[in-house]
């Protein structure tokens, strides 16, 4: 049985005297004992089972880390996928590796089991940023129960949390009733194009699920979770202008040239759009002159121009990060309106390419966070706070967040140095976070919850 969501026992101590007549709790019960009593017998079995399997989880992490699964190494991604597939098969899931050769990436692993009650979609990934030519390839134990290695934190450690939680649910005898999908994505770090193929199965799983839980590492240690991540949109601005001798610039027949127009647009973006919460946009490259040769994929180009010729063309590319679809579309409209106010003798266009959608901080996500906070309290794990969305980049949960009822990310391990050769994980965070995840999944999948 769970406590109601606003138990008065969580009021600040200073307000207790006022409420004492209302409290039915024995005065001698300190908060810690209350917490212990709020786990049900089944939940206590789940927690004990996590401890039973922790050593195996660390051994599995070592095996997974020692297989290179850089995003551009599909064969290695497949081997890691098969490793987890065997574990999920043993837990009674129906599993499939979804081939992604058509987008030049390794496969995704999807595992599903049917039960009753709300369906929970659990998200991890198989790939890492470390390719086969990286010097960083091996799992190594480090001081203080930490371990170094590629993907230890991001996110083979998080996958380990997922498996450990599921094993505990199996041992406690409750997994058979559950509606669960585990999605371990093969190309999270360098997503295959087009998204309509590479994220097709994930989006489809999201449409059938009530809750999505992402096991990327938390940026705020053991006491944090992610209720929102900003989405990513690329943009390309192209300016054309009337060429002519520089001495004729600003005259009606020639106008202002492409470089001034590019500068006007970018500066107006800065003046009118900077400051809105969670909104950023960054022009990363700009080229202008008489001719421009720009390769947007490679992010490189050349330009030719002369000081005495009015610039004929200019181009800039950048990104746009937004926390909601509303913010994204509204900002695009504002940018288009600025682009349309051309200086004399110029014209400009802006194209947008949406990549990862925003994972918006909805009331439902905060309600799910409240349930996680309740689980953490009941486990005696202390407070869990939401991470500032501005601190989080895009992740796979963004592709399902708008379709599921509620989503949370950052439920994986605690570590540091992600995406560098100093990546490491706090091994103690694996069972710690697995207990939290297992009890949360148990409560979310109860019928009528
Ligand atoms: Zn990751």
**Care to count the β-strands?**
18
Structural class of the helix and strand makeup? alpha+beta
CATH architecture of the largest domain: 3-Layer(aba) Sandwich
Shape: elongated
Helix content: 25-40%
CATH topology of the largest domain: Aminopeptidase
How many discrete domains? 2
Computed over alpha carbons, the radius of gyration is 26 Å
Question: What is the tally of helical segments?
Answer: 11
Main pleated sheet: 6 strands, mixed
**What is the first-to-last residue Cα distance?**
11 Å
In this entry the ligands are: zinc ion
Description:
This protein has about 450 residues and is an alpha+beta fold. The protein folds into 2 domains: about 30-230 and about 360-445, Aminopeptidase (3-Layer(aba) Sandwich), CATH 3.40.630; about 230-355, Alpha-Beta Plaits, CATH 3.30.70. The chain contains 11 helices and 18 strands. The chain has helices at about 15-20, 30-35, 40-65, 75-90, 155-170, 195-200, 200-205, 255-275, 325-340, 365-380, 430-445; strands at about 95-100, 110-115, 120-125, 140, 145-150, 180-185, 210-215, 225, 230-240, 280-290, 290-295, 300-305, 315-320, 345-355, 385, 405-410, 415, 425. The strands form 5 sheets. A 6-stranded mixed beta sheet has the order 1-2-6-3-7-16, with helices on both faces. It has a 4-stranded antiparallel beta sheet with strand order 4-5-18-17, with no helix packed on it. It has a 4-stranded antiparallel beta sheet with strand order 10-13-9-14, with helices on one face. β11 (about 290-295) and β12 (about 300-305) form a beta hairpin. It is elongated and about 85 Å long. Bound molecules: zinc ion. Zinc ion binds near residues 154, 155, 188 and 216.
